[in-house]
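Problem statement: downstream parser choked on a complex file, so we are re-checking the raw output for the phosphoenolpyruvate run. The parser issue turned out to be on our end (a line-ending mismatch), but while we're here, posting the original submission so the record is complete.
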Amino acid sequence: MRKALVAGNWKMHGSRSVVAELLDALADGVADMSGGPDMAVLPPFLFVPAAADRLTDTAIAVGAQNVCDQDDEGAFTGEVSARMLKEAGCRYALTGHSERRALYGESDELVAARTAAALRGGIIPIVCLGESLSEREAGETDAVVQRQLRAVVDAVGISGLAGAVLAYEPVWAIGTGRTASPQQAQAVHALLRTYLRKRDAVIGDGMRILYGGSVKPDNAAELFAMPDIDGGLIGGASLNADAFLAICRAAG
Ligand code: PEP
């Protein structure tokens, strides 16, 4: 039985005061929840310590939005290592978010190397996979997500991947208000699980595969009802504590 995970990707949003308010609202709101899914928020790096402090002893874990591919400290300007994230209180880190791939040129190989470094450093990577609109329209969805997944499996091995979480995020659904239908999402999730099962049935069955792309309180339940959708990676709606917690309840 896979336990659902709902993670909120705050992207580059917030200020000290806005983050403090959001964390208070999350900490208060989650105190009333029992038996929910695993939950996490992924603030910008600067706000990770504040989140880890405020959410200590709550059911909400903290993560980061990326992680360096290098283990040791050194001349890697702008990067943050898995060890540093762990020390700051992170449990998770995104790798391969489509904005990193598209806006900052992160290749499949770099995403795989970041994922491997997260695993070595005791951070659970949430590996994002997904096709663009033009790739979907060209019928390339399956090939694209399998190529992205293969790069990670090649780097960490199928047994290494057991320590990770996958997130299918069709790029055309991110921040657009246009959600994949539950059936469209389920088809890709099933494809990814079959890909993993062929390499290791236990790891394929146990892998948590989140859906991301304009998940909101009013569409979460039908997405999470799909057999191969194990929770969500939430962008915009995670900036509102009530909306985020409503989505978490839908995954409970
Ligand atoms: C995301 O950024 O990972 C995401 C899914 O964003 P949104 O929910 O806003 O589409």
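For whoever reads this later: Residues 94 and 126 are 5 Å apart (CA to CA).
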